[in-house]
Prior knowledge:
Elements: E1 3-7, E2 11-12, E3 20-24, H1 29-32, E4 42-45, H2 47-51, E5 60-67, E6 77-85, E7 90-98, E8 108-117, E9 120-125, H3 131-135, H4 138-153, H5 159-174, H6 181-192, H7 197-219
Antiparallel strand pairs: 1-6, 2-6, 3-5, 4-7, 5-8, 6-7, 8-9
Amino acid sequence: MNIEIVKSKTIPYTPKYNHYYFFSSKSNLDKKGLTKQRGQNIVLSNMTHCRSSYPELPNGRYYEYFIRNDKFLKNKQCKEFTLIDKKADHKQVVAVQIFESIPAKYIESQGLCFNVKGGAVKFADVSKKSQNQQASPHAPNEKFMQFIQSHRNMKHLDVRSYFYFVELYNQCQSLNKGIPYKAKDLISNVYSSHNDKKLHKVASKNFVKYVVNEMKRLDS
């Protein structure tokens, strides 16, 4: 396989300024904190890695949470999950397993919950967003992310295109920027060509190339 995820040995964590996500059946962890239970694995993931596990969850309602700053994890013992894309010569830490509780001050609510029933995942707002939140790019970005997630669930997007879209999404969220229209146009070419393998491959290649260049521009 060109894409694989490798788990590290236990190591001290070095902050990467990543945003991490996790989910829980509890609705108040942003107020109460996440207390580690004996034998429990706490895994913080990027959005792709986190949401890919949702269809496999037992039926029920879950709540999505967000870790904005990973500095508090510095030097804490962890195991890292690194995604390796051999074809694109790309490596990225997509998740980290930690071994202690997370205080509430580091946890933010995504404002989203999701229901799982027989492997089907349906998102919903936890509560109405404030006017300030609606005026920011975060809300439309999140709405488009859900739209792309639905295409991924229907297998209209290949793994590589979806992975790079989520990288761009996370970068735009962290910088408080809207997802570029060019990115939306190019990814629409990917999911709309899912019935034609040749066109789909070309569209995916063009989209990934654009995202790589756009990420460099945003980082500069």
